[in-house]
Amino acid sequence: MKNTCSTPEEHEGVIKRALAAMPGEDDIAVMAARFKAISEPSRLKILLALSAGELCVEHIAKAVGGNQSAVSHQLTTLKLNKIVKCRREGKNMLYSVDDEHIMAMIEAAKEHLHHE
């Protein structure tokens, strides 16, 4: 495929293919919000900790080196974006990953950290 279009017909075809590859505006907004949610370093650390399995807030806070209040705040953002879920067990709330696709992206990013 050429990088430039030489005719109006080619130009229109390229634009149609590009538009067909894009989801709707609402879906793009959701995607952007999820990328924003996982791009914040403390939330990314929480997700990396949760990749090992279900954890309570206290254990997450210790794993990521944060305080419980800050971790709870970040977990709320991750929950609102449907990236983590929680369940109650006695007095504790246990958190786990709710979106394995997001975790697959994070794992791919980890694999490429030292890729040359």
Task: Walk me through what this model shows.
This protein has a 3-stranded antiparallel beta sheet with strand order 1-3-2. Helix 3 crosses helix 4 and helix 4 crosses helix 5 (68-80). The relative contact order is 0.12. The longest helix is centred in the N-terminal third of the chain and has 15 residues, at 25-39. With 116 residues, it is an alpha+beta fold. The chain has helices at 8-20, 25-39, 41-50, 57-64, 68-80, 100-111; strands at residues 55-56, 84-89, 92-97.
Summarize the structure.
The protein is an alpha+beta fold. Helices cover 61% and strands 12% of the residues.
What proportion of the residues is helical, as a percent range?
A: 55-70%
| Total number of helices | 6
**How many beta-strand elements?**
3
Q: What can be said about the biggest beta sheet?
A: 3 strands, antiparallel
Shape: elongated
Structural class: alpha+beta
Arithmetic mean of pLDDT: 92
Between the first and last Cα atoms, what is the distance in angstroms? 27 Å
Instruction: Assess the beta-strand content as a share of residues.
Output: 5-15%
What Rg, in angstroms, do the CA atoms define?
A: 20 Å
Oligomer: single chain
